[in-house]
Amino acid sequence: MSPRPSSRSARGATLLLVVLLVTVLLGLVAGVMAYASSERTRAVTFSRTGQRQGCAESGLQLARGYFGRNYARWNTFLGLPGVYDPIHSPTNPAPADPRTAAGRAAIKMANPALFADLDGDGKDDVYIYIRDNEDEFKPLAPAWDRDNDQQVVVGALCISETLIPRRGDSNQQDPNVLSVEGILQYNGGGHAYTAQSAGGTGSGNLNH
Question: What are the respective helix, strand and coil percentages of the chain, to the nearest 5?
Fold first, then answer.
């Protein structure tokens, strides 16, 4: 007949089993909490990205309307890329940046209609702009300050403090800026209409 284990050994084995079970349960709880937190962060980011997309899309509609009504001034606009085009390029080396207070002030001095408040809080949410498409035939060099085919590129930049997403689930503003662009074409009959091509980016890169 084998000897019975001592009560101390039995208590030790039971305690070890309890510790292992508690460790496993704690690991499961931590995993569930981490998953829930990441899902919440993704949901918040997706929601705010949608808000930012809506900001830029609304701005694009404003750009189409404004520049469509002002077809006769297209060459005037194209001749002032520092005000009407935020994209940095060799032919536009020092554009005013609508994301900064100084840039907004310079643009508004030239044309305050390029900004719009979308949510009624008294602050600028979107900046609309225009630039020429490449409409010269080779061997002619592109003339970005003059329209030759009754088509231009119009776009909108979401600069809102309230409609663009924050980083993750924090209150820190995401520095990226979403822009959306489309082709605006004049049909010669006193009306302007838009082609279907459009694009968007969240890179915030204003270099061309």
Answer: 40, 20, 40
Q: What is the pLDDT of residue 189?
A: 62
Residues 6+ apart with CB under 8 A from 41: 168, 169
pLDDT at 110: 96
Residue 204: the pLDDT is 46
d(CA 83, CA 131): 11
Query: Would you list the DSSP string of the chain?
Result: -PPPPPHHHHHHHHHHHHHHHHHHHHHHHHHHHHHHHHHHHHHHHHHHHHHHHHHHHHHHHHHHHHHHHTGGGHHHHHT-HHHH---BBTTBSS---TTSHHHHHHHHHH-GGGEE-SSSSSS--EEEEEEE---PPTTSPP-TTS-SSSEEEEEEEE--SSSSPBSTTSSSBP----EEEEEEEE-SSS-EEEEEEEEEE-S---B-
Nearest to 99 by CA among 74, 131, 71, 125: 125
Average pLDDT by stretches of 10, the chain with 208 residues:
60 78 81 56 42 81 95 96 93 94 96 95 95 82 85 93 61 65 83 52 51
